[in-house]
Amino acid sequence: xxxxxLYWFCQIGGWLFLALAQSLYLKLSDALTIxxxxxxxxxxxxxxxxxxxxxxxxxxxxxxxxKIILLIPRVIIASVLLxxxxxxxxxxxxxxxxxxxxxxxxxxxxxxxxxxxxxxFFSWSLIYFLFHxxxxxxxxxxxNLKWEASINEIELNKLxxxxxxxxxxxxxxxxxxxVDENPNKxxxxxxxxxxxxxxxxxxxxxxxxxxxxxxKIVNDYLxxxxxxxxxxxxxxVFIHPESKNFNIPPLMIQTLVENGIKHGISKLIKGGVIEFxxxxxxxxxxxxxxxxxxxxxxxxxxxxxxxxxxMQRLRLLYGNAATLKIRxxxxxxxxxxxxIPKNVITYEGNTN
Length: 352
Description:
This protein is of the alpha+beta class. It has 2 domains: about 5-145, no CATH class; about 180-340, Heat Shock Protein 90, CATH 3.30.565. It has 8 helices and 7 strands; from the N terminus they run H-H-H-H-H-E-H-E-E-H-E-E-H-E-E. A 5-stranded mixed beta sheet has the order 2-4-5-7-6, with helices on one face. A two-stranded antiparallel ribbon has the order 1-3. Helix 5 (about 185-205) runs antiparallel to helix 6. The longest helix is centred in the middle third of the chain and has 73 residues, at about 105-180. The model is unreliable at about 345-350 (pLDDT under 50).
């Protein structure tokens, strides 16, 4: 139902209900005659006409934008004026029809008739303004949500733009270390990097990508790092078959794997092992990355930039539905646990 249709439905329905209610009262009081019934019809007609003209006046002079404290006296005055106009107009028509009787015989009767009409127009005003205040409030809420979503979108894109150069810098350093030492391996490294770049460019501005696409990037990255660290880096991968049913924020797992190698294994003289595994429980994907080393740096340090970035992206995409935890499992290894729900929930209607 359009706003215009709703307005006329309420407008005609409201005044019709009033006229019928008063007619029923007259019937029960044995005072319903042709004259009183005609009077109720005139009340219905002039009520619709005057309130509609009043509504046009409200819109034209911007009363809907006026503060309540300034609006109340205007509504009271308008209700009184409408009651006076309505009463005298109705009386004039009744005179022409010869059914006026002693309606305006004395001042007290006139004042009583006007006072009886004032609550009707005042109630109409309250309903009309209340409807628009509620509607404007809802519009403001929607605009606030859209604004918040756009801010989140900007923030998310900012984080992604920070992430890609961060990853590229480390990858290029890996290749640089191989150029003089082993040209053939450096060529393989460039091939692995080109695969990663190609997949990254294909992601575009997607908030999430299929797990399988992210897994390809992780595989290429691990292959690249294995060339660099040689026997110092050993990898183990265990993937749950249902992992493919989930979407992952681009380069998020790669960032966590990179973090485990850079801040764990690379600092060990003999290197170590990085284990990447997934499991599915209650429609959530649990990703575990276990690496040799010890967690001794705070996550808010400069070296923890990738982790902070990851936490911010999770918050923007999933709210409190996703979690990231990093802890020492024992004296020789660190466990990073990432829990992700099936769908993005922050942006309404977006499940990627």
